[in-house]
Write a structure and sequence with these properties.
This protein is an alpha+beta fold. The chain has three helices and six strands; from the N terminus they run ααββαββββ. It has one domain: Hotdog Thioesterase (Thiol Ester Dehydrase, Chain A). The chain is globular and about 45 Å long.
């Protein structure tokens, strides 16, 4: 795992609060996992869509910042494919699929513990000229 990204993101209080951890980070790629608790459920008793989005967003941040410059999302779209079902965790895998100048396009998939996709996302991030670590 890219140690710089891992060290920086270990201070992400929102990710920690939601039980999200980075499993791996490589240039343009990331995998994150979220252990599910009842706190992740909506009023219907299923995993909240916001929790699914948050997991993907944390992995997206790691992949987008893996090039060494500060990057920020400027567009993300999500399509929910179905409920996660009974699963102890969700994983989000993100990979960079293209670049346009300083912008990078990323494809994301959130899967349950059986490997079934529950959501797909597409996003764009803008890479600044500012180094990630100063």
């Amino acid at each position: 795992m890219d140690s710089e990204i891992a060290r920086l993101m270990s201070d992400d209080r929102f990710a920690a609060l939601n039980g999200i951890e980075l499993v791996s980070v490589e240039e343009g790629r990331a995998l994150a996992r979220m252990e599910l608790t009842e706190d992740h459920n909506n009023f219907l008793g299923t995993v909240h869509g916001g929790a699914i989005f948050a997991l993907a967003d944390v992995a997206f941040a790691a992949a987008a910042n893996s090039h060494g410059n500060r990057s920020m999302a400027f567009h993300i779209s999500i399509e929910y494919l179905g409920p996660p079902g009974e699963t102890p965790f969700l994983e989000a895998e993100v990979r960079e699929t293209g670049r346009a100048g300083r912008a990078g396009h990323y494809s994301m998939e959130v899967r349950n513990s059986s490997g079934v996709a529950v959501a797909v996302l597409n996003g764009w991030a803008y890479g600044t000229s500012k180094p990630l670590i100063e």
